[in-house]
Amino acid sequence: xxxxxxxxxALHYGEMVAAMLxxxxxxxxxxxxxxxxxxxxxxxxxxxxxxLVMATTMALPMAGWMRVRGHRWAPIVEMCAVMYAGxxxxxxxxxxxxxxxxxxMLVGHVAMFVLMxxxxxxxxxxxxxxxxxxxxxxxxxxxxx
Length: 145
Fold this sequence. Notes:
The structure is a single chain. By secondary structure, the chain is mostly helical. It contains six helices and no strands. It has helices at 3-35, 47-68, 73-95, 101-122, 124-127, 135-144. Helix 1 (3-35) packs across helix 2, helix 2 runs antiparallel to helix 3 and helix 3 (73-95) packs antiparallel against helix 4 (101-122). 21% of the residues are buried. Residues 138-145 have low confidence and may be disordered.
């Protein structure tokens, strides 16, 4: 582990967080518009559904950015699963009344960022290395020739 790898790792984490935040800011309003006519008591407006939609608005752009950065599908799917893992633990606590809506969002989001960091550390060599976004294009070209 050297300084360059640590910087690459931190930069990659920051890029994924930025993609998540941009996605949430861009996609959450779309969800709000799509469900705006639904009654507050509709299942579409339930805290459980909206929590999972929020995670999705963050996971989709993060996955897209990872793909642009040259990641294989396995780490992308793994990182997307991590995005929901905290909510998978927190939702039953919300349903049983242990957590309120604010607690659900807090636990789910904190777990999301911590688990992302843990997943990245687990695959250190993937996230601390350099990725070439054109690697897939070159591989396809070489196979075609």
